[in-house]
Specification:
single chain; 157 residues; alpha+beta; minor pseudopilin epsh fold; 4-stranded antiparallel β-sheet; 33% helix
Length: 157
């Protein structure tokens, strides 16, 4: 062993014939790449299973918010506000709020098959409704009490 003196600090340096460069071997690199590949292989299917559910929840929350804002706008303005579903069920329109929403991969439909719109009156009522949001076997429903006009959301069983 040899000692080097640098100013007041002393630095020990090990020198021996068998000491090599520090680093990692090809085997260690392959093991790490294998573990990363396995983690990626497990994460992608899990993520793809969770994505439709997250999209459904986000769309349902946004739709619920727009319905509640429509009701509030009708009450505050003293004028009726109309919420209309698109005929193909992939979005809705609220002209008063300047909202024209597309809900890709999420189907919207009223429980009453012939219904296409909701009219929020200035007293906060809307006649009651049940709006279904569905995708890939999952669903949420937004309902409104016909007496109070209260709007809430639940899972579809």
């Amino acid at each position: 062993m040899r000692m080097l003196s640098v100013g007041k600090n002393e630095l020990l340096k090990k020198t021996s014939p068998d000491s090599g460069e520090s680093g990692f071997t090809l085997l260690e690199l392959l093991v790490v790449l294998g573990i990363m590949g396995l983690a990626y292989g497990l994460a992608v299917p899990l993520y793809s299973r969770l994505l439709p559910s997250a999209t459904l929840n986000s769309t349902a929350e946004n739709t619920l918010s727009d319905l509640r804002r429509s009701r509030l706008k009708a009450i505050l303005s003293g004028k009726a506000v109309i919420f209309t579903l698109r005929e193909n069920g992939n979005g809705y329109n609220i002209p008063t709020l300047k909202r024209n929403i597309s809900t890709n991969r999420i189907d919207l439909s009223f429980q009453e098959r012939d219904r296409q719109r909701i009219i929020f009156t200035p007293d906060g009522k809307n006649g009651g409704f049940t709006l279904h949001l569905t995708t890939e076997g999952r669903g949420r429903k937004i309902t409104s009490d016909w007496i109070t006009g209260r709007i809430s959301m639940t899972d579809i069983e």
